[in-house]
Amino acid sequence: MTRILTPILLLIVAAIVFFYFTDPVLTDIDGLRAREAELEVALVNADKLLKLQDKLLADYRNISSEDEENLNRMLPDNIDNVRLIIDINNIAKNYGLTVKNPAITGNKEEEEEKTKSVRGGKELEADNSVVISFSVSTTYEILKVFLDDLAHSLRLVDIEDLSVTAGVERSSLGDYKVSLRTYWFK
Known about the structure:
Elements lengths: L1 H60 L3 H10 L6 H13 L6 E6 L10 E4 L2 E4 L3 E10 L1 H12 L5 E9 L8 E10 L3
Antiparallel strand pairs: 1-4, 2-3, 4-6, 5-6
């Protein structure tokens, strides 16, 4: 009888040891293996990011001083209102125009309420922009070319408003009030 009870008792003890001690340890090991796989993926991604960072840093160091100056003009780190008005006036002079009544409004940095706007599918903080308004007297055809030059200048601008006080004839001069928003990088 002991020959039958001993193996049964040993099987019961083995089952108890397995379910109460070994199985939780094996479950922990499986969890640790899954965590190890996640960490290995993260390590591979970190290596890729370091290589990309090194490549971008090398590309950044290869930017010529002229290109860097152009980038700083396109999206400066501060707003230089006077310089921007001078740039707009220089573009206007190419067409024999005079910028009249320049005004800077909507400096969102000084306003308490910070709003957000969506432009081009991306959300931009509105506190790093300013609206510049000015007037010019010209024909419609010259205005189109002038606005095209503004759009293709190095400075990033969005024309927000264009008011027209037309002359009597199509070829006569009209007064155009232009409001544009320009940005800077903080």
